[in-house]
Amino acid sequence: xxxxxKLLSFGKKNIDLEELLKMLGLSSLDSEKCFEKIHTLQxxxxxxxxxxxxxxxxxxxxxxxxxxxxxxxxxxxxTKSEINSLHPxxxxxxxxxxxxxxxxxxxxxxxxxxxxxxxxxxxxxxxRKERSYEIFSKEKVLDDKxxxxxxxxxxxxxxxxxxYDTPEYCFHDFIKExxxxxxxxxxxxxxxWFAIRRLxxxxxxxxxxxxxxxxxxxGNGNKVAEKHGALTEYVRFMxxxxxxxxxxxxxxxxxxxxxRRCLAANxxxxxELFFNGYKLMLDLAEGKNLEDSPSERxxxxxxxxxxxxENNFQNIEGSQLSSCxxxxxxxxxNEVTAKHNTNTILNDHEYSTLDSALKQNKLIPQEIxxxxxxxxxxxxx
Length: 381
Prior knowledge:
Blueprint: H1 3-8, E1 14-16, H2 17-24, H3 31-43, E2 47-49, E3 66-69, H4 77-84, H5 95-98, H6 100-105, H7 107-119, E4 126-127, H8 128-136, H9 145-153, H10 158-161, E5 163-164, E6 173-175, E7 181-187, H11 190-202, E8 207-208, E9 211-212, E10 215-218, H12 223-226, H13 230-237, E11 242-248, H14 253-265, E12 270-273, H15 275-285, E13 291-292, H16 300-304, H17 348-359, E14 362-363, H18 371-380
Parallel strand pairs: 4-5, 7-10, 7-11, 11-12
Antiparallel strand pairs: 1-3, 2-3, 6-10, 8-9, 13-14
C-alpha cells in the first residue's frame, strides 16, 4: 500500500506528526529526511500543516506537530454512472455524487428505492413498516437511522413514499359494538392491527379475509402470552361475553411460539390461528428471498407440533393447523371450528413455503400484508 492509499484509508481528517512519520516508515531522528519527505507530500497537495499545532522546535528542519489530510477518494466512473441512472429525486442537488461513500454504503437500498420511485404510482397510504417491506422486502429499513437521515437530506418525505407512522399503543382494542358473543382477532404486530382497525372504522368493513370480526386486539408481541390468564381477565373486564379469539402473527418460530404460549397461559379461552391471514402471507411470500428470523433460541421442533399430523405433513388435504398440548408436547387432535375460521387447508405451495421458512429459521413478517393489500383482498370477498 503506497502513501496515497495509506492517507486515504487513515479515517481521520488530521494526522499527528508522529503517526505520519510512522506511516512513512521514517525515524524522527533522521530530521533532514523527514523534512524532505513531508515537504514533498505538501508540494503534491496531499497534506497541509495545521499551523495552530505549532512546530516541533527544530530550527533547521521545522515540522508541524499536526497535518491536515487533503487527499480525497474519487468516485469511479462505474459508481458515477450508477448514480446518474437513479430516479431524478435521488439525484437532487448532486448529493450522492459528492458523498458517493454514502451511496456505496446504501447501494442496494438506494437501487431498490429508485426502481420503486420509477415504477410505483401508489395513492394509498400504508404504515412505515408495511411500505418498507413492500420496497425492500425487509420491514425495518425505513426505521434505520442512517437511511432516515439520507432520505431527509434527499428531501424524500413520508408523503413521497406514502406511508404513515402508526401511533404508539393508542388503544388496546377496537370493538365496534359489544355483544354477548364475539369473534376478536389478536394481532401480534401494531401495523396490521392498526390497518384492520382502519378498515373497520373508516371503511366499515368487518369481513376480514372471509372471516366476520367484531373487533381487533393488539397483542403487542410477547405481552399477550407473558401473563397467565391475561386474556381471561380481559374477557372478564368486558363483562364475560362469549369470546372466540383468533390469533395472527409473524410466520417464524418466535411468532408461533407466542401463540403456543398464549394457549398455555389461557387454557379456558378459545384461541385459534387466523388461517386466512397466514394463507395470504404465504401466498405473498412465495418466491421471495426471506430474511433470517431474529429468534435464535427456538428449535424447529419447539413449534412444529402446531402443524404436525400423523402423516408428517404429507397428507396436505387432510392436514389442518392444530394446537400443541402445552403440558406434555403431545399433538392435539381437536379440529378447527369452521364456524369461525374458513378455508383452513393449505395448498402445496403454501405448505411448502411455511415448512421451509420454519425449518430454515426464516421470517415472513405481518408487514408483508400492507393496508392496501388487505383492503383489496377484503373488498374482493
